[in-house]
Design a protein that fits this description.
With about 140 residues, the protein is mostly helical. The chain folds into 2 domains: about 30 residues, no CATH class; about 100 residues, 434 Repressor (Amino-terminal Domain), CATH 1.10.260. It is built from 9 helices and no strands. Helix 4 crosses helix 6. The longest helix is centred in the first third of the chain and has 11 residues. The chain is globular, with a radius of gyration of 17 Å. The protein starts with a helix and ends in a 7-residue tail after the last helix.
């Protein structure tokens, strides 16, 4: 399996994108949101019903994510991470696996979310702080 930096260098210098894609087919990330959610869920001591409640989302929607029938938005992933009691590293990894931007401390909204994850705040507390700071809420 090729290293990310090596792949990037090869991609930047390739004259033939189709050939690059064919040669590196096995090197592309294959894990889905459902795969990573199941991995993370199995590490945590929470039921799916409790997760749905703590993540402020319906059990039906959450089951669809677990089954791979839904690809959650960046906000929904963050809500799920709060529901799981995930740490910042786990949240960043989940966002990356789903193709979303990771949390960035220089963005005020993201800084509030990072603080909440790092300090064990629940989703409602973080959402209240976002609202108080005139930032977009997570749900």
């Amino acid at each position: 399996m090729a290293e990310t930096n090596d792949m990037k260098e090869t991609l930047m210098s390739t004259p033939d994108l189709d050939r690059f894609l064919a040669e590196h087919r096995a090197d592309f990330a294959q894990e889905s949101a459902a795969d990573y959610l199941n991995l993370l869920f199995n590490r945590k001591n929470v039921t799916k019903a409790a997760l749905a409640k703590k993540a402020c989302m319906s059990e039906v929607y959450l089951h669809q994510v677990f089954a791979g029938k839904r690809n959650p938005s960046r906000n929904r992933i963050i809500c799920i991470c709060f529901g799981l009691g995930a740490n910042l590293e786990e949240t960043q990894e989940f966002l990356k696996h789903c193709g979303h931007a990771q949390l960035y401390a220089k963005i005020k909204r993201d800084a509030i979310v990072i603080y909440g994850l790092a300090n064990g705040l629940d989703l409602i507390e973080v959402n209240d702080k976002l609202f108080a700071e005139n930032e977009e809420s997570l749900y």
